[in-house]
Design brief:
Helices cover 27% and strands 24% of the residues. It is built from 7 helices and 12 strands. Helix 3 crosses helix 6. It has 292 residues and is of the alpha+beta class. The longest helix has 18 residues. Strands 1, 2, 5, 6, 7 and 8 form a 6-stranded antiparallel sheet that branches. A hairpin with a 6-residue loop joins strand 3 and strand 4. Keywords: Signal. It comes from Lentilactobacillus fungorum. This is D-alanyl-D-alanine carboxypeptidase.
Length: 292
């Protein structure tokens, strides 16, 4: 019996009993307050990349008390997880990856919540927040901005608004037109709307809110914002082609997956289109200021 116990202890120590030491419990000795691993699982170069949703994501040293590098500063690269660790400092516990790049020049520990499994195609950007049908220019415009911030939302909505102004080819785009549409969408009673040139604007807004199914289709990209607006205008009996020589602007609430966690989710599909007859050309030019 004594010989058997000695053999088992030897097998555990060498890792033979667990088979290539896929899992092991690290030593229990550690400094008070610092992070240490409760359990470790070895994995074989699992490709992962930054989700892009938090610019404060860092690579850390083992004890998670020293920042090595900001993950966003690494660029659009794929990292590879070699270990998955359950770590704690006695108060907080989380799952972390030990990662390296393909050349082994980047190494560190990163919280699992900041990463997404899978390879990132060279030169592409992480789709921060889950913007439906986002192109490379749109992803570049939101890079570095926190998901849900004012600037992030402005960039997302800008592309939606442009799809109305450009694809309908209803008239001449102008920033003052966008401002008027924004004023009306957020507060139709705004006193500024009674002043020139806004007082001459014609406003069109969504007739009904999208259904739960339409909200899902919008956020997943199955239904484009352009097609949603076009169908809603047709329901109202409006054809923007009759405004081909008018000034046009649009404003809408941003649509992206993570917006379901913000105040914008209940307003998915809200939009306002502003139109101005060309007879007011001088007023719109005056309001726009000097043109370069």
């Amino acid at each position: 019996m004594k010989t058997t116990k000695i053999l088992i202890n030897y097998l555990i120590a060498t890792g033979t009993l667990l088979g290539l030491t896929t899992f092991f419990n690290p030593p229990t000795t550690h400094a008070a307050g610092t992070y240490h691993a409760l359990a470790v699982k070895r994995v074989n170069q699992v490709p992962i990349h930054w989700s892009g949703e938090n610019v404060s994501a860092y690579l850390w040293n083992y004890h998670l008390n020293h920042k090595i590098q900001r993950v966003s500063a690494l660029g659009n690269i794929t990292l590879y997880a070699n270990k998955v660790l359950k770590m704690t400092n006695g108060k907080k516990t989380g799952i972390f990856y030990y990662v390296t790049n393909d050349k082994g020049t980047v190494k560190g520990y990163v919280w699992r919540g900041y990463m997404v499994k899978g390879e990132l195609d060279p030169g592409t950007m992480p789709n921060t927040g889950g913007i439906p049908n986002a192109d490379s220019d749109e992803l570049e415009n939101v890079e570095g901005y926190k998901v849900g911030s004012d600037r992030y939302n402005e960039e997302v909505a800008y592309n939606q608004d442009a799809s109305i102004s450009n694809q309908f080819k209803a008239g001449i785009g102008n920033n003052i037109m966008h401002i008027g549409a924004q004023l009306h969408r957020t507060d139709p009673t705004n006193a500024k709307l009674s002043t020139v040139p806004y007082s001459h604007f014609k406003f069109i807004s969504n007739s009904t809110k999208p259904t739960a199914e339409q909200r899902h289709e919008l956020v997943t990209g199955k239904l484009s914002f352009y097609k949603f607006v076009k169908a809603d205008l047709e329901k109202q009996g409006i054809n923007l082609d009759q405004y081909q020589h008018w000034y046009i602007g649009a404003d809408s609430t941003p649509i992206y997956k993570a917006a379901s966690k913000t105040k914008y989710y209940p307003t998915f599909g809200d939009y306002t289109i502003a139109l101005l007859s060309p007879q007011y050309k001088s007023e719109i030019e005056k309001a726009s200021g000097p043109q370069n």
